[in-house]
Amino acid sequence: MKKVLMSVAVGAAFVMAAGSASAQTLNQVKSRGVLQCGSNTGLAGFGQPDAQGNWTGLDVDYCRAVAAAIFNDASKVKFVPLSAKDRFTALQSGEVDILVRNTTWTMSRDTQLGLEFGPVNYYDGQGFMVRKKLKIASAMELSGASVCTQQGTTTELNLADFFRANKLKYEVVAFASSDETIKAYDAGRCDVFTTDASGLYAERLKLTAPDDHIVLPEIISKEPLGAAWRHGDNQWGDIVKWTHYAMVTAEELGVTKANVDEMLKSTNPDVKRLLGTEGKFGEAIGLTNDWAYRIIKLVGNYGESFDRNVGAGSRLKIARGVNALWSKGGLQYAPPIR
Amino acid sequence: MNTQVVSASSKAYVRQEPAAVLPPPGSLIGPLAWIRDNLFSSPSNILLTVVAAAVAYISIPGFLNFLIFDAVWTGADREACIAKDGVVPGACWAFVRERVNFFIYGFYPVDQRWRVDVFFVLGAIGVAWMLWLKAPRRDIGMIYFLVVLPLVSYYLLGGADWLGLSAVDTARWGGLMVTLVVAGVGIVASLPLGILLALGRRSKLPVIKFFSVMFIEFVRGVPLITVLFMANTMLPLFLPDNITVDKLLRALVGIGLFASAYMAEVVRAGLQALPKGQYEGAMAMGLGYWQMMRLIILPQALKVTIPNIVNTYIGLFKDTSLLLIVGIFDFLKAIETARIDPQWAAPTTSTTGYAFAAIVYFLFCYGMASYARAMERRLSVADKR
User: Fold this and answer.
1) Contacts of A128 (CB under 8 A, 6+ apart)
2) A166, exposed or middle or buried, with CB in 10 Å at 0-12, 13-18, 19+?
3) What is d(CA A302, CA A120) in angstroms, rounded to the nearest whole number?
4) Which terminal residue of chain A has fewer beta carbons within 10 Å of its beta carbon, N or C?
5) pLDDT in tens, B342-377
6) Which residues contact B271 (CB under 8 A, 6 or more apart)?
7) Inter-chain residue contact A92 with B324, CB threshold 8 Å
8) Percent of chain B at pLDDT exceeding 70
9) pLDDT of A105-157, one tens digit each?
10) Domain span at A114
11) In the predicted model, what is the mean pLDDT of chain A?
């Protein structure tokens, strides 16, 4: 029954997606006066309300940056919390303009749902956490280990693939919820805890002695998390894509929230093109030429956003790793603005 | 007879005063006797008592230690609640204290939260007016509760330009406020709808009967979660692009209809419990259908089913927590979201959040159950004669 329902839903989605394939999103957003952003219902570091009910996080910053580019006001975002199940429908049906909700970019989602996936604002992947006292430095040394994981997730499948491919022996100890899993690991029911690397850091904080545990360097799956929008509206897609690229470029050029006003006087042609003091790159995507200036002024560059939400400046303390700039050995790479 | 007794009392061997009443034998009174009668009256009771005492002995101290004695009451972030020297502290109430406003108001703008407070006060007045049997003018209270309160709340919470209240999108509603709004709408809507459906199902008119049966059986045949998914995921696909129905409204309609189908069956049980003579007697008096229902049948039928009605209400109140699946921030979801915040990540944060949720849900449900019990006692006076 579920399958039938799903196929009906997907079929209906196609029809609707075909209907909505026009360059209308920007106009709709402008006339509505607020960007509708499909967000997480709560994920540490990515989308999370604080005590006053204000959303913060890496994904949240992406939406705020798009709003900043369009309205010159990072607060003109309506966050629509979506569960994993209704997120694509909400985007297809036009309930949200953009979906930034730690959604993994996969081929089937990109090609079969009538959606476009954009730049990856966080390269995630499944990792392992072990106790320091085991003196393990690499996942390759995990043979014979018992592994705590959540039931019925892709995590469990990736785990099986990894151990089989490397001919390592292991024993799965699976639990229904992530809370039970981390509690069991903390109580010593297993040697290894596995989930997406971003989650490992958040879960580690819940342990009795977080400092006695380390996250191993191996990442055994590819989980590129990025923004998604409706298929067919290329102008809107350009805005979403280049918002992220502007943030990455700003980091690369050393333009920060604090120094962006000074940087307006910069003579560096790359900076001038980014901040709109030279060229008409903003107008070409339907915005004003100071679009990137607004983003950086109101939200900050990618590095600042990363640091504040998930990186060293946050409690999660996730290492930049593969999310570092390409010039620093990571994967974050923006095409040149020219 | 009487005079004889009086005259006899003058004899020396007759007591002048009645003998002092002796206390009952020690084995029949006092705490020991109570314990023997109530806890150790038979081998099976002895066994049960021992087991229950053992369970209490094992669990209660741990419970109290966690919730009260080892708990952390103050602090600004996770540092207060993390393990110190390998010892995990008890409940992290500091976390609940810091986030309690989020649990109650959700994303409601901070400077507008007085509106929610006013809503709570108005709601409390309405509930007290309806439920306190000696309150003056309960007929006005009824109108206030069923008509004035919903209208006022709608504008108060949602905003009204003509009153100078800024609009607050329902996406920003959250926490206990949403739980109460949804449960309140479900409770208020389900009883009248349920009564109509129950009457429809017992109607002699085939079309009405058919549609009532269809509706009840269809809705009862699917889980609430499916109804919510339908309302939330499928409905937007079938509507044109430019029409979006408010997410909370969709859930409200779904829950209201769901609860009324269950209520219909509860009311029908009450209708069927009445002897046929009640119907025939009413008709013999020359009462019309609606008069008969209003004056004779429903008062008796509803009285019989009070425990079941309240049972449905309590179930509905707790079912509101399913809203979190469709991304509406009800009370439980607000706690769920806050407990994963790295600011408060500590071994006991989640447990504390859930304990707080349990306490709040318990208070509400126990309140409803207690009121229903008092109501039943009052209404059953007639049966005791």
Assistant:
1) A139, A142, A147, A192, A193, A194, A200, A215, A216, A218, A220
2) middle
3) 12
4) N
5) 888 888 898 999 999 999 999 999 998 998 888 888
6) B198, B199, B202, B297, B301
7) no
8) 96
9) 989 899 999 999 989 999 999 999 999 999 998 889 988 899 999 887 778 88
10) 2-124+223-327
11) 88
* pLDDT tens for each residue of B120-153: 999 999 888 888 878 888 888 888 888 888 889 8
Could you tell me the domains of chain B? Answer: 25-69 (no CATH), 93-108+168-376 (1.10.3720.10), 110-167 (no CATH)
- List A146's β-bridge partners, or say none: A171
Instruction: Please determine, for the modelled complex, whether the ipTM score is greater than 0.95.
Output: no
d(CA A326, CA B28): 88
Instruction: Supply the CATH number for residue A41's domain.
Output: 3.40.190.10
Give the residue numbers in A contacting B (CB under 8 Å), as ranges.
Answer: 5, 8-9, 12-13, 16, 19-20, 41-45, 48-53, 78-83, 85-86, 89-90, 92-95, 179, 186, 202, 205-210, 314-316
Whole-structure pTM value: 0.83
Q: CB contacts < 8 Å between A and B, how many? A: 120
Specify the amino acid at residue B339: R
Please list the alpha-helical segments (H only) found in chain B. Answer: 2-8, 30-39, 43-64, 93-105, 113-131, 138-143, 149-158, 176-201, 206-220, 224-229, 235-238, 247-273, 276-284, 289-292, 298-304, 306-319, 331-339, 349-379, 381-384
For B35-56, the pLDDT digits (tens) are: 888 888 889 999 999 999 999 9
